[in-house]
Amino acid sequence: MILRGYATLENVATSNPGVVVHNFHEPSTGSWQYIVADDSTKNAVIIDPVLDYDPATATITTKTADFLLAVVKDRGYNIQMLLETHAHADHITAANYMKVKLGQMQSMPPAVGIGKRIMGVQEYWARHFGVAEEEYQGVFDKLLEDDETFHIGSVKATAVHLPGHTPDHMGYLIGDNIFVGDSMFNADLGSARADFPGGDARTLFRSGRSLLNLPDDVKIWSGHDYPPEDKQERAPYMTVREQRETNKHLKMDIDEDQFVALRKKRDATLDEPRLLHQALQMNIRGGRLPLPSPAGVRMLQIPLKLDHCQW
């Protein structure tokens, strides 16, 4: 199935023949989104769905999310949960929009799940942006414990805490697939930054090593890919064996101190994500829109940057 700007690839995991993974690359933010299904029952989850946002016009649209919903309808899936790996700083989550729409498509709406440490992240950024408690408390239906197990139809899944990029970061081990968000990218990208509040390079290294201690053929599905214009194929996953041998930040001949040094050096050169402020204000709300102002306008705050201006 192809839609302009989006491609899906269906993968049937060899050691778990009932697990089907559909991946979708959203090119504006370089984000991977996933539908993971139990083929025998048609029960499924959606991981890290994206809501489209144009910063030039401050306009939210739903093309990407609607495409995922069309795939769900076409395949006859029943979505049990919408899973977030963390509070993203580079795209707005479509979880709440999709929860509402899926509630109209199936017998009951899916729960929105995220790691339990999201509460600390919400409190930090709510103070930073002045978001009222009523707008973020209780917006997630399921706060997942470390190593908590759940089922997608007949398929066992486990929530795996992978801190370092953010403190709340969770991965999801489903069959012989693990969906790791921003904790590990494909080999040419290496690892995500660790300089956000609550991030830590040493912790990120240890999370990476825990992933590389999984069996060789487990597929590590990443949260992002930023291919150059001349790169025709986007790679949503690599095996543990491939990552162990070739990941430019986390391969086995790089030790913790080396990783911390290169990660800190790299992070010092990075600008903040393009949608940092919009994404975090929406994502601590679980993708819900801000409440209207007294004038009836929904507002997001964008900090001013003063280049040594004084008056």
From TrEMBL:
TM region(s), chain numbering: none
Domain Metallo-beta-lactamase: start-end pairs: 30-224
GO BP, sorted A to Z: glutathione metabolic process; hydrogen sulfide metabolic process
Top-rank lineage group of the source organism: Eukaryota
Keyword terms, alphabetized: Metal-binding
InterPro entries per record: Metallo-B-lactamas, Mito_Persulfide_Diox, POD-like_MBL-fold, RibonucZ/Hydroxyglut_hydro
Example GO molecular function: metal ion binding
PANTHER family listed in its UniProt record: PERSULFIDE DIOXYGENASE ETHE1 (PTHR43084), PERSULFIDE DIOXYGENASE ETHE1, MITOCHONDRIAL (PTHR43084:SF1)
Protein name: Metallo-beta-lactamase domain-containing protein
